[in-house]
UniProtKB/TrEMBL annotation:
Organism field: Pseudooceanicola nanhaiensis
Top-level division of the source organism's lineage: Bacteria
Name of this protein: DUF2147 domain-containing protein
Chain ranges of the DUF2147 domain: 67-167
Pfam families, per the entry: DUF2147 (PF09917)
């Protein structure tokens, strides 16, 4: 009688199904020894340690520019920008806005301010774009991070203007 075997496929005999999933081993010639069987509790401990290391490495590999940054005052207002990965690049969105009266709900909240920044190593980022809300223009951009300071520049051709942002706490 045929059974429903590997992955529910009807027609495979029980022996073929067991062989396919590795439960039946071929006999060894009498004059040879089987290979040493590995595994057991020690192997499970090693596997668990490797999995834990892989998970913590992902958290530790966060880009150092990620987080909240305070911009300089531009046209009477400043913002807190949330920098985060967007694929393999870095992007920044406006999280909060402030003016001389304190925090206010700007229509710019939630909009991208910086995008497509490519990490270059050594705290440098290039080939990105930056939007200047005060004149609604987009510029080519680059950034340079040093500790809790981020030099952000918007460029037209060879001429670049910039701001020094500080990490928001």
């Amino acid at each position: 009688m045929a059974r429903s075997g590997l992955f529910g496929m009807a027609g495979l005999s029980h022996d073929v199904t067991q062989f396919a999933i590795g439960l039946v081993r071929a006999p060894f010639p009498r004059n040879t020894r089987p290979a040493r069987v590995t595994g057991g509790p020690l192997m499970l401990k090693r596997l668990a340690a490797a999995a834990a290391l892989a998970l913590t490495a992902g958290a530790a590999s966060a880009d150092p520019v990620e987080g909240m940054w305070k911009t300089e005052v531009d046209d009477g207002a400043y913002a807190i920008v949330r920098m985060a990965p967007c694929g393999a690049k870095i992007c920044g969105t406006i999280a909060r806005t402030f003016n001389s009266g304190g925090e206010y709900k700007s229509p710019s909240i939630g909009k991208a301010l910086v995008w497509d920044m490519e990490p270059q190593g050594g705290g440098a980022y290039a080939n990105g774009k930056i939007w200047r809300p005060s004149n609604d223009k987009v510029y080519k951009s680059k950034m340079q991070m040093s500790g809790d300071n981020l030099k952000v520049s918007g460029c037209i051709g060879p001429i670049c203007l910039g701001q020094n942002w500080t990490r928001a706490r």
